Amino acid sequence: MKTYNDMAHQMAAFLLQVKAIKLNNENPFTWASGRKSPIYCDNRVTLSYPEIRNFIRQSFVEVINNNWNSIDVIAGVATGGIAQGALVAQELGLPFVYVRSEAKSHGLTNQIEGEIHEGQSVVVIEDLVSTGKSSLIAVNALREKGCNVKGMAAIFTYGLEVAAKNFETANVELHTLTNYDTLIEVACDQEYVREVEQESLANWRRNPEAWSDAHMNS
Q1: How far is CA 167 from CA 28, 41, 86, in A?
Q2: Which spans in 49-160 are helix H?
């Protein structure tokens, strides 16, 4: 029987294998915020690999069945959670909607695309959780429609303290297929990174802002 630990390690290995997640201490990535980071994540890459895509879909289904019941709708967070959420909804035989970061400025000015009704129970699918801000915008939009958001499932989380606080404040249950600690463990085991780099990677997770500032001019 597959355990969560088995799933998390396999998921991390897949993400590294297809370079959906890249690690580089010496030449940090620049995020959209302008901050420097030793990690860059684009889980949309996994959609190009049927074996990995199927693993993600079935893992999401397992997480949902193990943690929530009586689900009416699956909702994907635009854009990374749209395809993943649609695959999960198809597997579960449930309706699907997706949620934009904000309402459109034209047409019907929808923020939620698809049919959803007050009182329906929803599980939200996300590809990546960093601070949780964009993910929780989707949750709030669904709650404003009168939906009961049972929780969120995501492929990966950086495990940042700010995200944990944001989800706790919003009273949203979060489950992920893998996480930062597992990723670093697998990366070291498979020699994607050297053991001497572990401390720097751990320091980034503890304080991303300070890590970025220290590497801004390096």
Answers
A1: 28, 20, 23
A2: 50-67, 80-92, 133-144
Q: How many helices (H) and strands (E) does the chain have?
A: 8, 10
Tokens of 85: 């959420």
pTM of the model: 0.94
CATH topology classification for 4-210: Rossmann fold (3.40.50)
Phi, psi dihedral angles at 119 (to 5 degrees)? 90, -10
Q: What is the pLDDT of residues 164-208, one digit of tens each?
A: 999 999 999 999 999 999 999 999 999 888 877 888 999 999 999
Beta sheet of 112-113, edge-to-edge order = 112-113, 96-99, 73-77, 121-129, 148-157, 174-179
* Confidence (pLDDT) at 107: 62
Question: H/E element holding 155?
Answer: strand 148-157
Retrieve residue 75's tokens. 């909702």
Name the CA dihedral angle for 21, 24, 29, 33, rounded to a multiple of 10 degrees. 70
**C-beta separation of 131 from 37 below 8 A:** no
Q: Which pLDDT belongs to residue 196?
A: 78
